[in-house]
Structure formats: structure tokens, C-alpha cells
Design goal:
The structure holds two protein chains of two kinds. Chain A is mainly α. Helix content of chain A is 59%, strand content 1%. Chain A has two domains: 41-262 and 295-567, Up-down Bundle (Cytochrome C Oxidase, Chain A); 263-294, no CATH class. Chain A has helices at 31-36, 41-71, 80-84, 94-130, 138-146, 148-160, 188-217, 230-261, 296-330, 337-351, 366-378, 380-394, 403-426, 428-434, 438-468, 474-500, 520-536, 538-550; strands at residues 273-274, 277-278. Chain A is globular, with a radius of gyration of 25 Å. Chain B has a single domain (29-208), classed as Four Helix Bundle (Hemerythrin (Met), subunit A). Chain B has helices spanning 10-13, 32-60, 68-71, 74-100, 103-133, 142-173, 183-208. The chains are: A mainly alpha, B mainly alpha. Chains A and B meet through helix 7, helix 8 and helix 9 of A and helix 2 and helix 6 of B.
């Protein structure tokens, strides 16, 4: 991030195309402009990264509290129980438990995974990998980060609101979420939750417009679309998904907000009675009555119209990172580059027509469920293409088992488990049995935690030297990896068994049902793994901060990789590159016969 | 493993003093700003699709949907619709004036667009006041819920458009546009036409059917 020591006029940033402007770089940028209100895509990417990692800790703590209650229901929480719930005798109350899983989901999806993938790495990698000095609209980029600030504000307000925080699940199904008297968490906290989500949406939308424009207009000469690294394909396709899916959630969010604040009736059915009180305009006090005639199912359709593509927003960039990292550390070209691109596009395209598979048991017309089942199972095809191409890439490779590579390999294998359970979960008859059980929890944590989060960790280990000019420690990295890998499977694998046994999600004390009482020991084991998984992350924290200041200094291309970001200094200065780039080939020329070394950078002219 | 990691070599790895002037590969043949505004309009299309889609579902699920003629001032709004369509025409004239480098023309046609846009919003505000006075609030029934959310969001888009055009008008006053530089007016115009088009749809489905 240090600008190169030069008094000369220079790099240019953002010449409108066709024209060549030379403007003078401002070397004297104050601390505030440089690190706080920065328009540099790398700094904004790091702002997103640190924010996302802080929220990862928060989301993890919420998960620990969930695991405490599931392992030791109604027992006093040690140490922090005294601070958090003095009034309930230091135990988690049922309402508090509902808030815990609601906020765990919300924080992890909207404040950790999406900001880390698209905000942090989208920002950092897109200009560097396509050979641009910055994003197309640096100020818009800055505003994209700052739109997260009101989102965080409202999220925190929700924690402190009456009723102890939003508690309608991260899916916010009405009428629980729309009728303010329905439950303690449905009071003002739910309103703050909606406002937080709307601001996250504003941030994502600004980012997505910027990413797609940058990829379309600012590729270095010779960088054709089919020479772009798969990370860029993944991030670009995710941005397109956001552009087309997110506004629908925004619209639905406003409808729910108005249902709550103006008492409109979009999601309120006729003759609804809540806590023995009718809420219809016809029977209640006109001041506070709610219009009726709406459909709770409508919310589910609108919500999942966004939130299913959001699943792919969370996995498609991760697939891109894994592809890049696997190619670099396997020292082989990606097997079937174009099919990889087409399968990303195929997953994204199909992702728009499968949302109903979240609603098989909602009372939706079963014929429609059938259609959603077929379209969902079709996603197995492009996903399988990707998995087999990763395996094809690894076949016969001289693999360097570095920490990023281990995480990328873990991503692939965990994605297979999560993907396979996804296929049979998509079958309506199976889903009717397992719906809302722990098998669903196992499935999406394999995809989103063992998938996306592992890919994020792989990306942090892989691009850390580019971000900060220093390596992360390999030994600590491997300790971190093996512990994380084992405990992750310890937590989530056994949830499949719980699900088959019928244990339902979102229940504070399932053991009060006699048929589930025997599952408590298994849950206890899962919780021990979860606590160990959380504690194990200390190795990552130590490694991250130690390497930040004292890690081994490295040059431009420590991994001997081919893509453009490794042609820039580490860390890249303002304007990224110190020479004009020209791209001559695709991104994965490893172990080819043309040159002596086992890699041929995209920029080298032969 | 660490032998696989190249060590720091100042001769290669230190940043060089000279920076290039950047050059790009050919992209789609539109300016960045116009490309981005089209993407933004795509998100707006999806936003209104969500609202209109919800309206279609809610209406088709209601046994006896009220006849809008009995509840809304259809004739007044028809005139208002005409006003908004005229404003699209004046917007086009403003762009033509900008392309000719005719500063006076820009000011006049943009001014007229602002006037018609403001008139549209004023009539809508008046309509809202009359409705609220007669107790037609959004919480009365699902007809009013959908009416207020769709016309409300459209109205707020018109307000944003008017503010945008006022900014463009002041920029034109300072001579900020020329034959070669009229992108700002074109972008504002694209947004304005989009807002118009949405209204034509909303007027048809909310007031006429």
C-alpha cells in the first residue's frame, strides 16, 4: 500500500477510454484519506476483510452459545452467563435461543461470507487480476463500504432492542415477523433487522455495478474474456446474480417493513388471530389494525428468489478461488477451462429457477414442487463438471501441499459432501421427511462453512503475500488447517445422523420430547468439537497478526504463479502496476514445454 | 515447502519508479458511465418486478378486487400520466440541445422537464392527501396496501429524478456541457425515461384494470 517513492508524474488511473490522460499522483495522502475514506480498491478490500473477520468472530460466538444450549440445556452458562442473562438465572431462555440462531445466520451470511467474498476479495482481486489500476468508479466503491456502516449500526441496534433481538429466523417468515405482537423478538428488533438488510443490499448493489463495469471495460490489452482467471469469472457472475436477484429481496424487505410499520397486509392472511387477538382491520382497532388478504407464502417466494441465488453468490466466487489456487499449487493448467466457465454460468442461470426447493413443505402446489425438484437436480450437472475438472487438474500433478492448497483441497472434498446431500435433499419425497431437521443444517454448513469459508481461508493464505508483502507462517498454517478440518467434520458430519433421527432445527430444548432425549450425548460431542473449532482459530489469529508485521518478506511472485496480480509489487502501490501489461495467453500455463521454468506468466511474450 | 516460495529480490521485486499510462482491451462499445447506468436500471427493473409481481399474486388471490374507478381519481391521473409522458419528450429535446452545444436549449428543455416532473409529483401528493382525508390508509385493505407501495416507490423515484435534473440544470447553467460532453444529460435522461416507462405500466395495472 506504500506508494512507490517517486516524484514523477504518473500512474494513471482512470482515463476515460480512448483518451490518454496523465495526471499527477498525490503522494501526500493523509492517514484518513488513505486508510479510512480511501478510494483505493485494495484498501477498501481490506476494510471489508477486517470487518468480515470481526463479524466472523461475533457469528462464531453466537454459534457457541447455540451449541452450549444444545449440549447442556438450561444449565448456567459459565462466565458470560452472569453478564448476559442475569434475569433468567444465567441460562439461555427460549426467546434468547431463537435470537441466537436468527442472528448467527444473519451475521454469517450478510456480514461475513458475502462481504468477505465479494467485498474483500472482489475488491482486491478484480482490478489486479484483469490488469486495471483501480475499479471503474472508485468513489462508488468507497460508498459501497460505507453503506455497510448503517447496516452494522442497525444490526447492533437489533441486539439491544426490546425483546432481546430479532428472532424470526434469518428467513424472517411472516406472520411471525410481521405482526409486532407475535413474539418478543417481533417487536422493534425485527424492524432494525430489515433496515440492516436493506443497507447491506445497497452496499452489495453498488459493488456489483462496479465489478461488472470494471470487468467489462478495464481489462488489460490482450485479456480477453476467455483469458480471465476463474476467480474473475466467479466474482463477475456473482455480481450479475446480485444485480438481478437482490432488488427483489429489497422490494420484499420494504413490503415486510411496511407490514410492520404501516400495517399493510402483504403477508397477513385474512382472519389472522395472534395471541388470541384478531389483527384484521375488520375486527381490530383501526389505528393499529392490519390490512388482510395477503399471503405468507408470497414472502417465502420473494425471499428465496433472492436467497437461493445468494447461495450461489456465496459459492461461485469460492469455486473461482479454489480453481486458481489449485492450478498454482498443483503446477498444472486447470482441466477444461471453458467447461469451468460454462458451468459457473450454468449454476448461476439455473440458480434463478430453483428457489422453490426451500418450500416443498410450505403448502405450495406439489406440481410446482416437482418442477423445482427437476431444475434443482439439474444443478448437479454443472457442479459435477466442476468437481471432476478439479480432480482432473490434480491427476498426476506434482502438488505443493501448502496451506492455501490444503484449504482448497478441503473445499473441493467438503463441497462434494455438501453437494451430494443437496441432490437427494432436492428430491421432494426425501425432503418431506428430512425438512427442517438437522440434516438441512449439516448440508448448508458443509457448503457454506466447509465450502465457502474454507475457500476464503485458502484465499487469505494464498493472497496474503500480495496484500501485505509478507508470507504467512506455513507451520502455524498447517496446524490451523488440520485442526479446523477435523473439528469441522466433527461438528457437521454427525448432524446428518441427527437429521436422519428426525431431530428438528430451531428448537431450544428438543430433548423435552422423549423420542429425541437419547440424542443429547451426540449433541454434546458435537458441541465439544464446536468449542474446539472456535478455540483452534487462535492459531489463525496469531499467524495473521504475526505475519502482518514479522512474516518473511517476499517479492512479486512468491508462488510462481501466472496471473496478472503477481506482476505487481507486493504490496501493490496506488495504481497497482508499475509497467504496462500486455496479456498473451490464458491464466493457467503451468509445466508447459515452452519455457524452462514450470510456469509461463500471462504477460510474458515468447 | 518453503523452497517453492521465491525469496525477495530487490532487483526484480522492488517497485519501479516509472508508471505506465494504462491502456485497455476493447470492451463493449459504450462509455463506462452508460454501461453502469444500464446495470443500475436492470436492478431497478427487478425491484419493480418484485413489487408488481407481488401485486399480481395478491390481486389474483383476492375474490373480489375493487374496481379502481370507484376508489381512485382515474381521469386526474390520466392527465398526470400525459404530463409525465410529455416530460420524456422534453428530456429528449434537452439531450438534442446538449448534442448541438446549445446551452440555452438545455436550460429551457431541462427546465420544462423539471417543471413537468414536479407537477406530476405535486398531483400525486394532492391525491394522497385526498385519500388519507377520506380514511383510505394503507392498513385498510390489500388494495390500498399495494396502491401505496407501488405509487409511493414510483413517486420517490420521480423525486430523485427531479433532484438529479436540477443538479444537471445548474451544471448546464455553469456551462458544464458541450457537443462533446453531454453524457451527464444522457444518463439522467435514461433514468428519467425508465421512471416514465414504469409509470405507464403502473397506471395501466393499478388505475385502468
Amino acid at each position: 500500500m506504500n506508494p512507490p517513492p517517486s516524484a514523477e508524474p504518473a500512474p494513471l488511473g482512470l482515463a476515460p477510454e480512448g483518451t490518454v490522460h496523465v495526471h499527477h499522483e498525490h503522494h501526500e495522502i493523509g492517514f484518513i484519506r488513505k486508510y479510512i475514506f480511501s478510494t483505493d480498491h485494495k484498501v477498501i478490500g481490506m476494510q471489508f476483510m477486517f470487518t468480515g473477520l470481526i463479524f466472523l468472530v461475533l457469528g462464531g460466538l453466537l454459534a457457541m452459545a447455540i451449541r452450549w444450549q444444545l449440549a447442556f440445556p438450561w444449565q448456567e452458562m459459565p462466565v458470560i452467563g452472569r453478564l448476559l442473562f442475569p434475569e433468567t438465572g444465567r441460562v439461555v431462555s427460549p426467546e434468547y435461543y431463537t435470537m441466537l440462531f436468527t442472528m448467527h445466520g444473519t451475521v454469517m451470511i450478510f456480514f461475513v461470507i458475502i462481504p468477505l467474498l465479494t467485498g474483500a476479495f472482489g475488491n482486491f482481486l478484480i482490478p489486479l487480476m484483469i490488469g486495471a489500476p483501480d475499479m471503474a468508479f472508485p468513489k462508488l466503491n468507497m460508498m459501497g463500504y460505507w453503506a455497510m456502516l448503517p447496516a452494522i449500526f442497525f444490526l447492533m441496534l437489533g441486539f439491544g432492542a426490546e425483546g432481546g433481538g430479532p428472532a424470526a429466523g434469518w428467513t424472517a417468515y411472516p406472520p411471525l415477523s410481521t405482526i409486532t405482537s407475535a413474539a418478543p423478538g417481533s417487536a422493534s428488533a425485527q424492524t432494525y433487522w430489515l433496515l440492516a438488510l436493506t443497507w447491506v443490499g445497497v452496499s452489495s448493489m453498488m459493488g456489483a455495478v462496479n465489478y461488472v463495469t470494471t470487468i467489462a471495460k478495464m481489462r488489460a490489452p490482450g485479456m480477453t474474456l476467455y483469458r480471465m482467471p476463474l476467480s474473475i469469472w466467479g466474482l463477475g457472475v456473482a455480481a450479475i446474480l446480485q444485480l438481478f436477484a437482490l432488488p427483489v429481496l429489497t422490494a420484499a424487505g420494504f413490503m415486510q417493513l411496511f407490514d410492520r410499520v404501516l400495517h399493510t397486509g402483504f403477508f397477513t392472511p385474512t382472519n389472522l388471530v395472534v395471541n388470541n387477538v384478531g389483527v384484521d382491520y375488520a375486527v381490530a382497532n383501526p389505528e393499529t389494525a392490519t390490512a388482510a388478504g395477503g399471503h405468507p407464502l408470497l414472502w417465502q417466494h420473494l425471499f428465496w428468489f433472492y436467497s437461493h441465488p445468494a447461495v450461489y453468490i456465496m459459492v461461485v466466487p469460492a469455486m473461482g478461488f479454489a480453481s486458481d489456487i489449485i492450478a498454482v499449487h498443483a503446477r498444472k493448467p486447470i482441466f477444461g477451462y471453458k467447461p469451468m466457465v460454462y458451468s459457473i454460468a450454468g449454476i448461476a442461470g439455473l440458480g434463478f429457477i430453483v428457489w422453490g426447493h426451500h418450500m416443498f413443505t410450505s403448502g405450495m402446489n406439489p406440481t410446482v414442487g416437482m418442477v423445482f425438484m427437476v431444475s434443482t437436480i439439474m444443478i448437479a450437472l454443472p457442479s459435477a463438471i466442476k468437481v471432476f475438472n478439479w480432480l482432473g487438474t490434480l491427476w498426476g500433478a506434482r502438488i505443493r501441499f501448502t496451506t492455501p492448497m490444503l484449504y482448497a483441497l478441503a473445499f473441493v472434498s467438503m463441497f462434494i459432501i455438501g453437494g451430494l446431500s443437496g441432490i437427494w435433499m432436492a428430491a421432494t419425497p426425501v425432503d418431506v421427511y428430512i425438512h427442517d431437521t438437522y440434516i438441512v443444517v449439516a448440508h448448508f454448513h458443509y457448503v457454506v462453512f466447509a465450502g465457502s469459508v474454507f475457500a476464503i481461508l485458502a484465499a487469505i493464505y494464498h493472497w496474503f503475500p500480495k496484500m501485505f508483502g509478507r508470507m504467512m507462517n506455513e507451520t502455524l498454517g498447517k496446524i490451523h488447517f488440520f485442526g479446523t478440518f477435523i473439528f469441522t467434520n466433527g461438528v457437521f458430519y454427525m448432524m446428518h445422523q441427527l437429521g436422519i433421527a428426525g431431530l428438528m432445527r430451531r428448537t431450544a430444548d428438543p430433548y423435552s420430547y422423549e423420542i429425541y432425549a437419547h440424542l443429547q450425548p451426540l449433541n454434546e460431542a458435537i458441541s465439544y468439537c464446536a468449542f474446539a473449532l472456535f478455540a483452534w482459530q487462535i492459531f489463525f489469529v496469531i499467524n495473521f497478526f504475526h505475519s502482518l508485521f514479522w512474516g518473511r518478506r517476499v517479492g512479486r511472485n512468491p508462488w510462481q504463479a501466472t496471473t496478472l496480480e503477481w506482476q505487481a509489487p507486493s504490496p501493490p502501490g496506488h495504481g497497482n502496476f508499475d509497467h504496462q501489461l500486455e496479456v498473451h495467453r490464458g491464466p493457467y500455463e503451468y509445466s508447459g514445454p515452452e519455457v524452462e521454468e514450470d510456469y509461463l506468466p500471462q504477460t510474458r511474450k515468447l | 515447502m518453503s523452497d517453492a516460495i521465491a525469496t525477495y529480490d530487490p532487483a526484480v521485486d522492488a517497485p519501479r519508479a516509472h508508471h505506465p499510462v494504462y491502456d485497455y482491451d476493447s470492451g463493449p462499445p459504450v462509455e463506462r458511465g452508460k454501461f453502469a447506468i444500464w446495470l443500475f436500471l436492470a436492478t431497478e427493473v427487478m425491484f419493480f418486478t418484485g413489487l408488481i409481481g407481488a401485486y399480481v399474486i395478491l390481486r389474483s388471490g383476492t375474490a373480489a378486487w375493487p374496481n379502481p374507478e370507484n376508489r381512485l381519481a382515474v381521469f386526474l391521473t390520466a392527465i398526470n400520466t400525459f404530463v409525465l409522458i410529455i416530460s420524456s419528450w422534453t428530456m429528449v429535446r434537452a439531450l438534442f440541445a446538449a448534442q448541438r452545444g446549445d446551452r440555452g436549449g438545455i436550460l429551457m428543455w431541462l427546465g420544462l422537464t423539471i417543471f413537468f416532473g414536479s407537477a406530476f409529483v405535486s398531483v400525486q401528493v394532492y391525491e394522497y392527501f385526498e385519500l388519507v382525508k377520506h380514511g383510505s390508509l394503507p392498513n385498510v385493505d390489500i388494495f390500498w396496501s399495494t396502491f401505496y407501495i407501488m405509487t409511493g416507490f414510483h413517486g420517490s423515484h420521480v423525486v430523485v429524478g427531479v433532484i438529479w435534473l436540477v443538479c444537471a440544470w445548474f451544471k448546464a447553467l455553469r456551462g458544464g456541457y458541450s457537443e462533446r460532453n453531454y453524457l451527464g444529460i444522457e444518463l439522467a435522461g435514461l433514468y428519467w425515461h425508465f421512471v416514465d416507462l414504469v409509470w405507464v405500466l403502473l397506471f395501466t395495472i393499478v388505475y385502468l384494470f
